[in-house]
Design goal:
mainly alpha; two-stranded antiparallel sheet; Hypothetical Protein Ta1238, Chain: A; 4 strands; 54% helix
Length: 188
Amino acid sequence: MVHLSRIYTRTGDDGDTHLGDGSSLPKNHPRVASYGSVDELSSVLGMALVEGLAEPHTSWLRLVQNDLFDVGSDLCVPGEAGDRLRITGAYTQRIEQWIDTVNEHLEPLNSFVLPGGNRAAAWLHLARTTCRRAERHIVELFISEGEGRVNHEVLKYVNRLSDLLFVLARAVNDGGKADVLWQPGANR
C-alpha cells in the first residue's frame, strides 16, 4: 500500500525525478513524458466523469482511471520488472469487449467525427486525443530504449483505450445521432 506522509520532497528541484527502481532521470525524458501524459489523461477522464455519464460508462471509466495508475507504475519501472509489471493482455481484452458492446448500438459512420456535440462528448474527445499523445510518448520511449525496457502490453492498452474513448464520445452524443460530422471542403 502507498503511504504518503509528505507531499513535497524537494528531490525534484534540480530537474530530475526518481523512478520506481530507484534510478533518476531528467523530467523531460521520454519515460517521464510517457507516464506524465498518462496521469494527464486520468485527469481529463475525471472531467468527463463530472459531466454525469450513465452506467456502465461511469464504472468503466473509474476502472480505467485505476488502470492508468497501473500503466504509470509500469512505465515508471524500466527494464524487466517481473511481478511489478501490472499491465497484461487481460486489460486490453476488457477494453475491447467494452468497445464491441458500445459500438453495436451506434449509428454507422459515413464521415469523420469532429470533437463536440455535448459537454460529456467533448471531454471524452479531449481524453481521446490526450490518450493518443500518451501513446506517441510511449512509442518514443519504446523506440529510444528498445525491446524489453518497456512492457509492450502498455502500448496495446493505451492504443485500445483511445478507441474506447471515441466510441464512448459517440455513445453520449445520443448514440452518434448528435455527432458533429466533418464536411470535406465545406468552407471553400
